[in-house]
Structure formats: structure tokens, C-alpha cells
Design brief:
CATH class of one domain: Mainly Beta
Number of strands: 35
Largest sheet: 4 strands, antiparallel
CATH topology of one domain: Methylamine Dehydrogenase, Chain H
CATH superfamily of one domain: YVTN repeat-like/Quinoprotein amine dehydrogenase
CATH architecture of one domain: 7 Propeller
Shape: elongated
Strand content: 25-35%
Distance between the termini: 102 Å
């Protein structure tokens, strides 16, 4: 398999196709890609086809020679999707009702990828949940209709063979397995009742036929995450508003569900939002970023037990490479764009970089390179993309010219096992320097402090380091307590040194005590001795001209009584 992987960039000037590392040269393709009205583009899952919408024309290209295989006129498609085996291309356009056509026309179309032949059209008015779902072998086709899910078999789109109509379903998902089919549904609760995530085996959809069920009270929205085998799923539940006031982002929960009927709740060790969830392509673990800033990143096994802690940091995104032996943790959006690349097998940090203002990140199919991009409309300034090596070295950069906006960048897809696991090496890679200005890392110092020694501190004193749960690594709380103890000790030493410099030798009373051997009497004798020493110190200060407080003078007057009590105890 060639190591040169092309990628496509869609901008306000059209689409450009570029050869990936190490070439980075534009592919000499068709001039018709240069258009200012390109709305969307997409590679098929196997990489054999490339589809895009140019104005009112939908085009499908063969990627081995970049020739058109289909040109579909008079379409206003906003979204495109390929079937799992790249057999079909599905497009969705806005549903429109006019006086001439009060019923409206079908707006969801299915085309054959090989020649663009229209196979079937449906009406799907809402943009939400527009994309139909297939089984991995394409024998099962499904789509949501109002609150029902309907199923078609064997590419016969004219006959509904099964339907889930006993629940009001707002979202569902099919796992990527073949032969035996399953459906995972989100059923919202009403009138104080909990919501449910229910797992069914196709086509047994009655209430008593669910093979697994998980209830949750806080679930306005549920996102489904299947592992690549399709035998385990994670359900990320979200409420729009956190009624406790603990989070601006609402409240999230993470639940585990398996095809064998097992369910569990994933317990987090830090309070706060759940920012990102990702399965390892190896299928035996998943990673979660969660908690108030600085967020924690933790890897869990299939028993939902933490097996490795990445520690805390400024991060909110997880990206495994396609082979699953590297995992990238990044902090984007309102974070500074710092990226860490870890060896996912040995749990070792192997690279890092800063990709500020990135709105998009995608691993290349070879698992060695990844791209970051700053795109519109999220950000309209500084649009462009960068190609990186997994060690964090920048290899290529392309910035948009003035007044030109970048909308999307994506790698060409390849079959699942086209690339072997990349060998991870510590060898240094030759890179380039970014043309973008780098923000100064030097802390601002006011004029009054510029001629004084600097004070070392960090904003991340409470961060945890990476460790395995149960290891000897110190917790955040213990580290903070240790720092407090050290600071307190240093302060005492400093104060002690100052007192010696000011007052000279330690002042004590000339009165001596003889311990009797009786614990009670000896305790009283020691207390009286301490008081007499304190009085002697006050008398010394008085002779030096220091004005004493009223209570201090009263202590000096009580010296005789203390001496009498001392003599009485020693009799």
C-alpha cells in the first residue's frame, strides 16, 4: 500500500485535492472542482468514490483516476452519506412546499455509487436524524419516521418488513455487526418517569423482548458509541440544564451496555461535565475526558474499571488512530489547542504540539500523520490546515489567502486493514516551523516587580500526573497538603531566624524545678515553669523600654503566686 494518502480541502474557492506526506503537491485533476458554490464533500468508506455538491450539481468521482462516474443535475443537497460498503450514496436536501406543489417533493434520495442511478426517494422533513442507518453488510436498511423506526431488507426499498412503533423513539443506533442484527433505542420519559435505553434483537421489538434495558432520569439527549466489533456500546446522556447549578453545559452521565444483556454506569472520579468519549479500535478499552477544568482523562476496561489515568490537564477531545496503538488528547474550542500523543499500548507520552484555534482534527488512515484545521464559520480569521507527524512535528502548512475561507478538510478513506499498525519510534523527524505567530509564553510583570527576583509558580499546581489506579502516585489533595506543610515550615524558619536576630539569646527564668515522679504533679510543675519563663521574657522587654499590655503587666504581678505554688508542689 502506497504511503502517499491524498486529502481534500473545501474552501470558498472550491475543492483542491492534494497528495499527502511526503509529497504535498496538488493533484492534477479536473478544473471543474474550482467553484464558489460547493456545499459539501465526502469520501466513501472504502475510498473508491468521492462525492461533492457543486451548486445544483451532485458529482460522484472514481478515486483511482479521478474521473466522473455520475453527474446528477438539479439537486440542492446539504448532506451526503455513503452506505457501509460504498454501494449507495444518500443525499438530503431541504423540504420545500410551494403553491404549485403544496405536498412537497421527496427530499431524501438514494443513488447507486457506480453510475448515479436513482434507486429510491423518501420524504424526510426534519434535518435532525436525516441519515438512514444500515447494517454493516447492507442487508438491513432503516430510517426514523416521526417516532417510529422502519426497516427494509435485501435492498428492497418499497416494502417495510419491520417497525418499532410501541415506543416514542427520538434516537436509535445499529451496531456494526453482520448476520444477527440489534437495535439500541432512546425512549424519553414523560411526567416524571425515567428515560430508557433499550436494546432489541431484530426483529423482536415488543417490550418484554428487550435483551437489555438501562433507565436514567437525566436524559434530554443520548449519544450512542459502539465499539468496532459491535458487541458493546456506551450511552452518553445529557440534560440541557443542570438544575443543581453545577455546570453551564448541563449534566452528563455515561452508561455501558453489552449484547449479552449486561449494563453498568461508568463512575467518574471527578465531578463535572463529560467532554469526550472514544472506544479504542482494539475494542478492549475506552477513554473518557471529564470533570471541571483541569479535566481528567481515564482509560476504562470492559468492566468499567479505571486501568490508567492520564492525569489532569487542559483537554476536551480524544482521537485514537485507526490502528488503535496511538491516542491523541487535545484541548480545543475555548482551550489553547495543546495536543498530547500517547503510546496507547505502553501508556507513554511520545509527542506533543500546539495547534491553536483548531476546529477540526483527523488521523490519516496510515495512523502516522494527522491534520488540524481552522475552518469557517466557526472561525473566519486565520483559516488553514496543518499536517503533523505523531511525534508532534509539523510537516506541512497551508494558509488561506486573504478573503478566502476554509470550510472542510478530510483524508481519503481506505479499507479497514489496508495499513498495518505503525511502528512507534523515538527517532527525531525533520519538520518545518509554522508561519503563524506564536503567543508569548513569558508572564507579564508589572513595572514595580521588574527589578526584583522572579517568583516561580504555575497555574496548574493542582494537576495530577499520569498513573495507574492504586499506584504510589500522590493524589492532588496530598500534593497540595505537602506544599502547604513545606511553606509553613519555611515561614517558621524565617520567623525563627528573625527573632534570634532581634532578641538575641533565649530568655528563661532562673527558677529551677525538681520533678517528683508523680505524673500529675510533674505536669503542673512544667506548666508553671513555662509561665515563669514567659514572665521573665516580659520583664526583659520592659527593661528595654517596650510598652506592655495590661494583661502582660498582670502576668508579671502574678509571679510571686506562681513561685509559692511551685514550692508547695515540691514539698
Amino acid at each position: 500500500m502506497t504511503s502517499i494518502i491524498p486529502f481534500a480541502a473545501r474552501s470558498s474557492a472550491g475543492i483542491t485535492l492534494t497528495a499527502g506526506p511526503p509529497v504535498f503537491e496538488n493533484l492534477e485533476t479536473i478544473k471543474s472542482l474550482q467553484s464558489k458554490t460547493c456545499r459539501t464533500m465526502l469520501f466513501s468508506p472504502d475510498g473508491n468514490y468521492f462525492a461533492f455538491v457543486d451548486g445544483s450539481v451532485l458529482k460522484i468521482m472514481q478515486t483511482d483516476n479521478w474521473n466522473d462516474v455520475a453527474i446528477i443535475e438539479n439537486t440542492k443537497a446539504y448532506h451526503l452519506a455513503f452506505s457501509p460498503k460504498s454501494t449507495f450514496l444518500i443525499s438530503w436536501e431541504q423540504f420545500i412546499v410551494t403553491k404549485e406543489d403544496p405536498q412537497g417533493k421527496p427530499n431524501l434520495h438514494i443513488y447507486k455509487s457506480v453510475n448515479g442511478e436513482l434507486v429510491k426517494s423518501f420524504v424526510h422533513k426534519k434535518q435532525g436524524n436525516w441519515e438512514p442507518q444500515w447494517s454493516a453488510d447492507e442487508k438491513l436498511f432503516s430510517k426514523i419516521v416521526n417516532t417510529d423506526v422502519v426497516f427494509y431488507e435485501d435492498l428492497n426499498f418499497d416494502r417495510i418488513v419491520a417497525r418499532i412503533d410501541c415506543y416514542k423513539i427520538v434516537a436509535y443506533s445499529l451496531p456494526p455487526n453482520v448476520g444477527t442484527y440489534f437495535v439500541l433505542c432512546h425512549i424519553p420519559g414523560v411526567s416524571g418517569q425515567p428515560s430508557f435505553g433499550k436494546l432489541f434483537k431484530y426483529p423482536n421489538f415488543e417490550a418484554q423482548q428487550s435483551i437489555a434495558s438501562k433507565s436514567f432520569f437525566q436524559a434530554d439527549k443520548v449519544e450512542f458509541y459502539w465499539n468496532s466489533k459491535g458487541n458493546n456500546a456506551l450511552l452518553l446522556t445529557t440534560t440541557e440544564v443542570d438544575k443543581t447549578g453545577g455546570s453551564y453545559y448541563g449534566k452528563q452521565g455515561l452508561h455501558f451496555m453489552s449484547l449479552n444483556g449486561q449494563t453498568a454506569m461508568v463512575t467518574m472520579s471527578k465531578e463535572g461535565p463529560i467532554y469526550s468519549v472514544a472506544w479504542s479500535p482494539k475494542n478492549h478499552e475506552f477513554c473518557v475526558i471529564y470533570g471541571f477544568v483541569p479535566a481528567k482523562a481515564t482509560i476504562f476496561n470492559l468492566k468499567c474499571e479505571p486501568i490508567f489515568e492520564f492525569g489532569t490537564g487542559s483537554r476536551n477531545s480524544i482521537y485514537y488512530n485507526p490502528q488503535g496503538n496511538l491516542v491523541l488528547l487535545g484541548g480545543f474550542g475555548n482551550l489553547r489547542g495543546h495536543v498530547e500523543i500517547w503510546d496507547a499500548m505502553n501508556k507513554k507520552l511520545i509527542g506533543s504540539c500546539d495547534a491553536a484555534d483548531s476546529t477540526l482534527l483527523e488521523w490519516a488512515p496510515d495512523g502516522i500523520h494527522f491534520l488540524t484545521a481552522t475552518t469557517a464559520p466557526r472561525l473566519r480569521i486565520g483559516n488553514g490546515y496543518k499536517i503533523w507527524h505523531y511525534s508532534g512535528v509539523l510537516l506541512h502548512e497551508k494558509m488561506m489567502v486573504q478573503q478566502e475561507e476554509l470550510y472542510d478538510v478530510c483524508w481519503k478513506k481506505y479499507p479497514k486493514y489496508a495499513f498495518k499498525d505503525p511502528a512507534i519510534s523515538s527517532e527525531k523527524i525533520q519538520g518545518i516551523a509554522s508561519s503563524q505567530p506564536v503567543a508569548s509564553k513569558q508572564a507579564y510583570r508589572p513595572p514595580s516587580a521588574r527589578n526584583r527576583p522572579s517568583v516561580n509558580f504555575t497555574l496548574d499546581d493542582d494537576q495530577e500526573r499520569s498513573h495507574k489506579p492504586g499506584s504510589d502516585s500522590q493524589s492532588k489533595a496530598s500534593l497540595k497538603q505537602k506544599k502547604k506543610r513545606e511553606a509553613k515550615k519555611a515561614k517558621k524558619l524565617e520567623e525563627g531566624d528573625d527573632s534570634k536576630e532581634i532578641s538575641g539569646p533565649t530568655v528563661v527564668s532562673a527558677v529551677q524545678i525538681n520533678l517528683t515522679g508523680d505524673p500529675e504533679k510533674d505536669k503542673k510543675l512544667k506548666n508553671i515553669k513555662k509561665k515563669l519563663d514567659a514572665i521573665e521574657k516580659l520583664k526583659e522587654q520592659q527593661t528595654q523600654g517596650k510598652a506592655l499590655e495590661v494583661n502582660q503587666i498582670a502576668k508579671i504581678k502574678g509571679e510571686a503566686d506562681l513561685i509559692k505554688e511551685l514550692e508547695h508542689l515540691q514539698m
